[in-house]
Amino acid sequence: MAGTTRGESIVVLIDRVAQWLDSLTATVLPTVAVTHPAVIRAAILVALGAPPESFWRLDIAPLSRTVMHFRGHAWTLRSN
Fold first, then answer.
1. What Pfam families does this protein's entry cite (predicted)?
2. pTM (2 decimals)?
3. What does the domain layout of the chain look like in residue ranges?
4. Which residues contact 64 (CB under 8 A, 6 or more apart)?
5. Cα angle at 37 between 49 and 43, to 5 degrees?
């Protein structure tokens, strides 16, 4: 699978984001991340359990907002 602009493969990016999201499930504190659309795509794939092949099917606009909440055992998404 093709890499991101940094040369990192999409699968590696998704794995890295999955580890980061997993680290957030242990805290009740809000977290704000200002990041590249590729990271948001990866986070959405992790939250939905979607395959890496779906990465380019998500269109995340620059300067958009994606809200995610961890509720007990799973992530929920809110599109704004």
1. His_Phos_1
2. 0.85
3. 10-79
4. 37, 40, 80
5. 20
Backbone φ, ψ for residue 70 (5° rounding): -95, 120
Say how far apart CA 26 and CA 80 lie, in whole Å. 25
Residue carrying structure tokens 């380019």: 56
DSSP per-residue codes, 1-32: --B-TTS-BHHHHHHHHHHHHHHHTT--S---
Q: Which amino acid is at 9?
A: S
DSSP 56: G
Are 3 and 10 within 8 A, CB to CB?
Answer: yes
Q: Angle 70-45-1 (CA atoms, 0-180°, nearest 5)? A: 150
